[in-house]
Amino acid sequence: MLDLPFLPFCVLLGGLGFTCVAFVSAWCQHWRGGFAVDGSAQMFNWHPVLMVTGMVVLYGAAALVYRLPPTWRGPKLPWKVLHGALALAAFGLAVLGLVAVFRFHNDHGTPNMYSLHSWLGLVTVLLFSCQWLAGFSAFLLPWAPGWLRALYKPVHIFFGSTILLLSVASCISGINEKLFFSLKNGTTEYKLLPAEAVFANTLGLLILLFGVLVLGALARPSWKRPDADSPDSCQVPAPLWGPAG
Q1: Alpha-carbon distance 124 to 130, whole Å?
Q2: What residue spans carry the region label Disordered (predicted)?
């Protein structure tokens, strides 16, 4: 892999995350009629916006907290709190997103939980809730012994990446499902690629790219925080901007 400096990568990733949120908001505002809280189709539009913002962008930011070089020195508690707070904010947005879609379905007599997208999305949120509670209990509360934290840490890391992957898959399948349902019966069919289809397909690709870059950053050895008890714990953090001079 190229020896990329971390901070420019973060700026790029932050811009990409902002673009994802801007795209999903523009899609819902321009083509889907905007936003409301009255159980209408406009209330449903909160669902994709909140899910992309929470389960993809904010969750991705939470996952990368320990890749910041400043976290490699000093106490870990402030960074643990930041990591947990970002994940909790992502979970809160996801819950609001579920409220929006269930309220819309119930008010319009639409069955809940019948599509693969809905199954995948609910499993992702439930798995995320278990992940957050287990991480809070093991790493933030003082009663967990060191051996238990060491045992659970690789499990926590594995499921963190898995949940992000499931979140990306849920968002992409939801975009595709919404286009299939919307672009028919009097509108330009999806297969004819009207402007909305091109825009929403591009949104899906941006979300996929964001997820791939986050997973790539998590897998990059030189960006991992050294364990305090490992021989690499005194290594010098990677440069923020790249080689000087």
Answers
A1: 10
A2: 223-245
Give, as one character, the DSSP assignment of residue 39. Answer: S
Residue-wise pLDDT for 151-179, tens only, equals 999 999 999 999 999 999 999 999 999 99
Which residues lie closer than 8 Å to 199 by C-beta, 6 or more apart? 23, 26, 27, 31
> What CATH number matches the domain at 8-224, 1.20.120.1770, 3.40.640.10, 1.10.510.10, 3.40.50.300?
1.20.120.1770
Chain centroid to CA 172? 12
Q: Which amino acid is at 25?
A: S
Band of the pLDDT at 65, cuts 50, 70, 90?
Answer: very high
Grouping H, G, I as helix, E, B as strand and the rest as coil, residue 35 is: coil
Report the distance separating Cα 19 and Cα 224, nearest Å. 26
Q: Which amino acid is at 147?
A: W
Contact 9, 217 (CB under 8 A): yes
**Cα(121)–Cα(131) distance, integer angstroms:** 15
Q: Is the pTM of this model over 0.70?
A: yes
Q: Would you kindly state where each structural domain of the chain is located, as residue ranges? A: 8-224
Dist CA 35 CA 19 (whole Å):
19
Burial of 147 (C-beta count, 10 Å sphere; 0-12/13-18/19+): exposed
In the structure encoding, which two tokens stand for residue 112, read together? Answer: 């809940």
